[in-house]
Amino acid sequence: MREIYHNDLDSVVNELVVMSDSIQIAVRDATRALLEADLQLAERVISGDTRVDAMHDQLEQRTFTILARQSPVAGELRTLVAVIQMVAALGRMGDLAAHIAKIARLRFPDHAIPEPLTENFRRMSRLAQDMVGNVGRILAERNLEEAKHLAEQDEEMDDLRSQQFRVILGSDWQHGVETAVDVALLGRYYERIADHAVSMGRRIIYVITGDLPEGENWPTT
Amino acid sequence: MREIYHNDLDSVVNELVVMSDSIQIAVRDATRALLEADLQLAERVISGDTRVDAMHDQLEQRTFTILARQSPVAGELRTLVAVIQMVAALGRMGDLAAHIAKIARLRFPDHAIPEPLTENFRRMSRLAQDMVGNVGRILAERNLEEAKHLAEQDEEMDDLRSQQFRVILGSDWQHGVETAVDVALLGRYYERIADHAVSMGRRIIYVITGDLPEGENWPTT
């Protein structure tokens, strides 16, 4: 019985790794659709979000079933509650990737992002992909150092967002109100993806140590 | 033992009602600070978010303790997992109210919102306050009808947001890029508060019926 239980527990953590890989790909494809004005790819990300939602439902239900049948305590209970919260965060990141793709679709055949900001968005996207793609594995490996590293990566994301504001609010901005609004909202979506990864990192720290990271507020999704 | 347990369960649900009342007040005050360019009130909302975070941590910890000690099943397990998720959503709504207040503070002594849009934001705020303020009580009363009604209110929120876009992207917009960007981000914050309330409504439907609302995706925070 206990062995089946531990297999179940490992299996939901493994599914979480698979889900985090899928979100990484969604962020990559949404960004490519955005920067290359690729309508087909945008549509693929948008329709793919249904699959992400299905993974979310299934994984949450499985975790709930383990909670109901096995009545776990201590570290195992912490892990299962963390999985439920992390699954919600990954689902939300998937929605945000779809939001990015929807702006790409809305502006097609134009490019939503003007040339002076494409490199900035490319960097935001790489950072977000890196954070999302790692977070499942960080839980599976109980890697405390890498869990803490996610908060450092988030600072870089904040810097990139500040740069965007300087560009769109600068006196030499030539691309109009609509593009500025697109940039502000898109920047917000990438920033939120990174925030969710940081929250997940804090959850992992709690799972490993039983304590919240010092001086940090409890993460909210 | 079972009686203490049921008292504990009622008590976390009551705390959730208290927390939802606090968020309602935060949204009300943040909006007043925004529309009246009231710096002191903006500061109060921003510093008050620490208290909301503390309520979040405490309530989550108490729910976790009940899970660990009482090994609930069925409807009670659904309730406790829903409480953990709803507490996260309320914490997030508190962050969003603080974001609104931060824009009020950033633009002080100017008004962030120009006159043609104040009534729109007033309506968004009233709607958000209504949804947030009700959602705790809807869980406490297991009120299926009102839980479903939250999704209808959300449609009105979406309409208000569409109106905002028509104004800021209209050819007669006179208030510049910065104000348009503020409006777009502020509108997003109110919309997200409403989205969280809808997610909480779906959680409540699940707690009451054991089923997800038909045709709906599982809510993600």
From TrEMBL, chains A, B:
Organism listed in the record: Brooklawnia cerclae
Subcellular location(s) of the protein: Cytoplasm
Keyword Cytoplasm attributed: yes
KW Isomerase (keyword) present: no
Family assignment from sequence similarity: Belongs to the PhoU family.
Biological role stated in the UniProt entry: Plays a role in the regulation of phosphate uptake.
Keywords: Cytoplasm, Phosphate transport, Transport
Name of protein: Phosphate-specific transport system accessory protein PhoU
NCBIfam families: phoU_full
